[in-house]
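User: quick one - fold this with 4'-deoxy-4'-aminopyridoxal-5'-phosphate bound?
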Amino acid sequence: MNIDIQIAEARRIQPAMDEVQFGSHVSDHMFLAEYEAGRGWHSPRVQPYGQFQLDPRALVLHYGQSVFEGLKAYRQADGGIALFRPESNAARLNASCQRMAMPALPGALFIEGLKRLIALEDAWVPATQGAALYARPIMFACEPVLGVRRSASYQFCIMLCPVPPYFQPGDPPLKLLAREDCARTAQGGCGDAKTSANYGQTIVALEGARAAGYDNLLWLDAAEHRYIEEVGITNVFVRYGDKVVTPPLSGRILPGITRDSVIRLLRSQGEQVDEREIAIEALLAGIDGGQVLEIFLTGTATIVAPVKEIGFRGRRHPFVPAPDSMATRLYRQLTAIQHGTAVDEFGWMLRIPA
Ligand code: PMP
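Assistant: Sure. Structure tokens for the protein plus 4'-deoxy-4'-aminopyridoxal-5'-phosphate:
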């Protein structure tokens, strides 16, 4: 698709990678486009990173029409740059938009905006294995009016953050707390949309879990507080003997792109992966009885991270993840595909033209 994207340049001094934390720094430029009802998406452009001007009535500030995405561009073994599965993020963005009564963004605009912005920011793509340039596309309602209804205007923006590996093999495995006094989402809600409120409402519970010595929350379903759903910004997998199980796409969990990649990788290697409900009591009995061999989390930021303990109803259920774990194997296989050092047999990587 031939999209006329204007580019205005400005350069700043880059931080050293060891000063950088997840999201602490942004690159020099951002991609912007606006939507007006009746006119559609217009004015796609790359310009120096800067602030928005927003009318205090902008609908997003009141009723929360806001969606976002997260994906990474990786330095390749040959010095080039490639994005991991950007078409999947474009499709998920539009699924989130549909749920939140927001306009679809043409996939070609999403991909072309990413390509042009990342090509300009080549120097911001780290070379370290596992580090990446994280792209954060956002869209929000900006019509200045009060009333719970569809906004007539929207802002789309992509920013880029250099990020270190969030989790690496050798880091301590994670401790999760399952609680019955709170829920991330309910059936019929918007748990499968990447919309801001799904995150803001979890902070109080997350702070409680951290104060109790846990790294994150293992969400349970809202109706019965019985079935495990997902963890923070990751999906969850459980390995029993020769079988791997993960909760199904029930409408309540985010359809993770790493989740889908891990399922496809494992199945291509002859592993059995079942997508089915996992009751917390059965999971804890499996941990205590030694049938659960490992639990691991998958996500764009984390890639694959092992779990070493689950807390529930005041009891700790620790276990020792196997040293030659499936989590470590998957981490290595995924990062090798992402950095272009393993064959991309699924066609997941999109090269950024220089
Ligand atoms: N669940 C939630 C709630 C998330 O925010 C994320 C991160 N996007 C995930 C799961 C993992 O999704 P992905 O693998 O696409 O990053």
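One thing worth noting: Residues 4-165 form a domain with the D-amino Acid Aminotransferase; Chain A, domain 1 fold (CATH 3.30.470.10).
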